[in-house]
Design brief:
The protein has 170 residues and is an all-alpha fold. The chain is 82% helix and 0% strand. The protein is extended, with a radius of gyration of 21 Å.
């Protein structure tokens, strides 16, 4: 109820502001919609590529294969191997990561160590490649090298510190 009231209030405020400043609200709205439609078409190929890549990774079984082969290494350092698929998918796709999180939470209890680590990982990391693809496509920038390395580093720290903080706090 409060969210709906807030949305209506913001829309009314924008319309009132436009009328008071003698702005053609309809023209401004349609111009903005036209510009955003162009941006949507510009980023569409990047989105198709990312969605295809995530679908191929999940359907091929590569994620499960890598998880099973590397589980001993992760378990030996205290990193739950059940969270490895989330580590692989999270940087690429938010929807794919939600599906992986759902799989993890259906296998273990959400309040378990693995469930808590997976939940903190989900909340403390970003869909790095998706975000970079969308924003850089929107501004037609092709050189992403100086952005990707710090972004991936931040994701790695998010994954590692999710484990550390869940151990410390629970």
């Amino acid at each position: 109820m409060a969210g709906e009231l807030l949305a209506v209030s913001v829309i009314c405020f924008i319309c009132l502001y436009g009328v008071l400043h003698k702005v053609d609200i309809f023209s401004a709205f349609t111009q903005g919609a036209k510009e955003n439609t162009k941006v949507a078409f510009d980023i569409f190929p990047s989105l198709i590529f990312l969605l295809t890549a995530v679908g191929m990774l999940r359907a091929s079984g590569l994620i499960e294969f890598l998880s099973s082969k590397l589980s001993f290494a992760f378990d030996s350092i205290g990193f739950p191997s059940e969270c490895f698929p989330l580590v692989l998918i999270r940087s690429i796709s938010g929807g794919g990561a939600l599906a992986v999180l759902n799989d993890i939470l259906s296998d273990v209890h959400p309040d378990s160590y693995v469930g808590r680590v997976a939940s903190v990982m989900m909340g403390s990391t970003e869909t790095t490649f998706y975000t970079i693809a969308v924003y850089f496509s929107a501004i037609k920038l092709k050189c992403t090298g100086k952005t990707i390395i710090p972004a991936i580093t931040a994701d790695i720290f998010g994954f590692v510190f999710a484990v550390v903080f869940v151990r410390m706090l629970f």
